Amino acid sequence: MIHATFNFVGRHRNDPRGVGQLLAIVGVVVLFIALVVLGGYFLYRSLPGNGELVVPDDSAALTQPEETAAASSLYIRVLGESSDILVRVPGGKVLTDTTMQQGQYVTYDQPRLDVTIGAPGAVEVFVNGQEREVADEPPGYSFTVKADSSPRPSTTPTESS
Predict the structure, then answer these.
(1) For 26-40, what is each residue's pLDDT tens digit?
(2) Which residue from 1, 6, 47, 117 lies 20 to 30 Å from 76 (Cα-Cα)?
(3) Which residues pair with 94 in a beta bridge?
């Protein structure tokens, strides 16, 4: 009978890392950091209340609120100190979810909107150019706006002088 003994000796392989492998690792790390930063940015932008109100520098460039109210399907202006305003397309995008201060107003021309007003006594509301009385409604009052079939120009939130 043949009997063989092998001494098991650990062998370590010392390859130097190539430039290609190093560049691949750096590329993966940079890609990971970029994805985390972009993900955080878009998450922040998607949170309610992060919309921007446009405030023009020249107050003479503003149209009169009455003209704006008549030319839009929804017009809300804060007359009191402040009010929470939520405007959204039913089953879709949130257009405004913010606390508006006295003098600020917002207009929209979408065909259908869901509106919630935190302090109805602090705002004036026009629907299709007609004033809608909401002052006596309870806090958190909600209603739906259906636009007239006539085309209207699109406007953005702004502040009156």
Answers:
(1) 999 999 999 999 999
(2) 47
(3) 88
